[in-house]
Amino acid sequence: MTDYVNRYAPSQAEIDRRYTNVRNAMEKAGLDALVVAGSEYTGFEGAVRYMCGFHILHRYAYVVIPANDDPVCVFPREATWVGDHAQTFIPKRELPAHCGEWMAEFLKTKGVKRLGIYGLQYVINVRDYSALAAQGFEIIDFEEQFDYARVQKSEEELASVRHSMAINKGGVLEVIKAFEPGKTEAELMGVAEGYFAAANTSRKTMDMILSGPDGSLRPQMVFASNRPVRSSDSFVYGLEIAGEGGHWVEFSRVLAPGGLDPVIQEMFDAYQEFHELARQHMRAGNTAQAAHQACMKPFVDRGYRSGHVCGHSIGMTMIELPRIGEGTHFVLPENMVCSMHPHVMTQDRAHSLYFQETYRVGRDGGEALSGVPIKVYDGTETAF
Predict the structure, then answer these.
(1) DSSP 18-45
(2) Please, are residues 146 and 121 in contact by the beta-carbon 8 Å criterion?
(3) pLDDT number for residue 86
(4) ∠56-24-151 over CA atoms, to 5°?
(5) Among 82, 230, 267, 342, which lies 20 to 30 A Cα-Cα from 327?
(6) Torsion angle, CA of 261/265/266/271, rounded to 10 degrees?
(7) Is 320 helix (H, G, I), strand (E, B) or coil?
(8) pLDDT at 106
(9) 322 contacts 333 by C-beta, under 8 angstroms
(10) What pLDDT score does 353 carry?
(11) CA 358: distance to chain centroid?
């Protein structure tokens, strides 16, 4: 039997690039060490995979990076046979009974005083954080600095991103092709999930729908249900996935077999304008705030409410910083990758529109990575 080889595993040059960028950020912040946390929480396993190559199957894991020593992977002992630890490109591996206590003692022996943690806002296991906090380290939330250090994607990473987008597009197209009145929302979602599983996305999918009757769309994003669909319904199957390289992308389009009602059609017109502006303003050297303000103008001018951020950086973690929004003065670098997905709604919140496209920040403007037209699909399409 031939062992599986991940075509998008990083080269040694890519690994060195990642560690150089992260260690530079650590030095700038005056850290003695950094703990990078990841968990099974969908989309938030990626920081650990980025720094050590391990693909979390269940539970959680860490990469501990001393300022002046080699990094160490730390896995919970109860997960010794959960996941393939041979995937890791960091040779030092520990499997203690209590990860937090082991990390605290290890860092104490290294003389650590100032400790950065990536994952403090969402991810880190509570008992492990408690063990670290009990040692009296000066703990620094390193979320922003870590994400900014990995925001510019290499050519290797972009190849993985494009591979993920090809899979995501295929899943959305399969839903459109499978549409038939009387099928359930969940049956249609199952078509996409089958496609994704066959393409080796493993558990790296985040699926939801937006739907509504008679050409409308309600504002709530929900799980697909056993409700039979009708030809007069409208849908957005919001599908977010990562391929075998681990890079997340987001892509969806509006499916409305009977057409959109006038309110949603006006929103869709504004969305088309939004994406034209994204192509102009998601360019290197622009700030995230300036791009947000320029792109959101069609919605602001029409008086719509905003129910979500305009967009965000995306990579091996599903939601990375910076946000594309007000107050974010981060200067966009070339080859940053962003998901752009404003969630707009009428003032009474009775109608809404939300769908996703992933962009590469280019020297002269944004590249929509799907290459798929911004239009309404009716279920008769067999290709994009």
Answers:
(1) HHHHHHHHHHHHT-SEEEEEEESSTT-S
(2) no
(3) 86
(4) 55
(5) 267
(6) 150
(7) strand
(8) 98
(9) no
(10) 96
(11) 10
Q: Check for a shared fold between 12-149 and 155-368.
A: no
What is the dotted CATH code of the domain comprising 12-149? 3.40.350.10
Q: What are the distances in angstroms from CA 6 to CA 92, 107, 345?
A: 21, 33, 42
Element containing residue 330 per DSSP (H, E)? none
At 93 the pLDDT is: 96
Residues in the chain, pLDDT under 50: 1
* Torsion sign, CA atoms 85, 89, 91, 94: negative
Segment (H or E) for 193: helix 185-198
d(CA 278, CA 297): 11
pLDDT of residue 307: 85
- Report yes or no: 253 and 174 within 8 Å, Cβ to Cβ: no
Homologous superfamily (CATH) of 155-368 is Creatinase/methionine aminopeptidase superfamily (3.90.230.10)
- Beta strand 93-94 with 114-118 is unpaired
Cα(71)–Cα(103) distance, rounded to whole angstroms? 12
35-71 b/e with 16+ CB inside 10 Å = b?
bbbbbeeebbbbbbbbbbbbbbeebbbbbbbbbeeeb
Reported as a single tens digit per residue, the pLDDT across 216-271 is 999 999 999 999 999 999 999 999 999 999 999 999 999 999 999 999 999 999 99
**Amino acid 247: pLDDT:** 98
Q: What is the pTM of this model?
A: 0.94
Q: Tell me how far apart the alpha carbons of residues 280 and 282 are, in angstroms, rounded to a whole number.
A: 6
Q: What is the DSSP string of 87-153?
A: G-S-S-EE--SSHHHHHHHHHHHTT--EEEEETTTTTS-HHHHHHHHTTT-EEEE-HHHHHHHT-BP
